[in-house]
Protein 1
Amino acid sequence: MPVEGIASPTTAQMAHLGEDAEMLNALLRFTCPFNMTCSPTITLPCGFTDAGTPVAFQLLGRHLEEETLVRAGHAYQTATDWHRRHPALPAD
């Protein structure tokens, strides 16, 4: 499932996060339920937006089955190279 309802918020957007309820909801809607229920998840990179910012997905596991998630994450990263790619940093 997605990690966020929007792709990679900018630093400027994050600076005003508390002022924008819609953005806050978009950032939390896919992670908050699992955080609140203490359900294990693992977030893995899966690409970049057209703007060059990273995109990720998360896998959800059963309670006390973190080992399964770590194995799945390792298998995914063995088969892909997304975790080795990095976005270009903006010039100051």
Protein 2
Amino acid sequence: MPAGSRWKVIGISREQWPLAMAALSLGGDVRVGLEDNFYLPSGEMATSNGALVAAAVELVKLSGRSVATVDDAKRLLWPGGGSN
């Protein structure tokens, strides 16, 4: 992979969480959503995308990394200054 590349893991179903933690520990990014997974790391059914995002935020913090703000994400995804 070229230096400076951004990459992420998208896990499906319950496997999303171990794959997300592996990606975070290797410097990758994660994304979550009910379109890929209905379960929280505990195995409990997620009630919303927000519940999955909250669980992902906890994983990010546990990995020692910080969560990107909306503005951070825009800069990361559109380094040349993409628009809304």
Protein 3
Amino acid sequence: MNEQQQEKLIELSKKYQKTGRAFRMVQSLDVVYAGSDRTESKLAFDKLILWLKRSRLQPMKDVAKTLLKHEKEILEYFTARLTNAISEGINSLIQAGKRKARGFHTFKGYSTMIYLICNKLAFAPIPLFT
């Protein structure tokens, strides 16, 4: 954030204290992922979970439960350095194909649209009149 945005954040955090606190909690998740190894990130993760659990904000307590449920997968990132981002990107393309395939009444039409989108094929325009 630039300086003006930081000032605005401080102003809004003072005006809406609960929202500001929740925002800082969410931002502290970045500290977990900034860790250089699993041990360092585990310490940051545990510190974040304690903060979220002690919070008087019920949504943040719910976030703590969700993070704890997925702790193994979150910390596994620091072992393999892999995420599911590619899968999510492909799924996004497939969903776009699904929307574009409206009007096709067969699976073949739907699957063709998915292949066209995922392969990013470019077709030369066909002249209407020659």
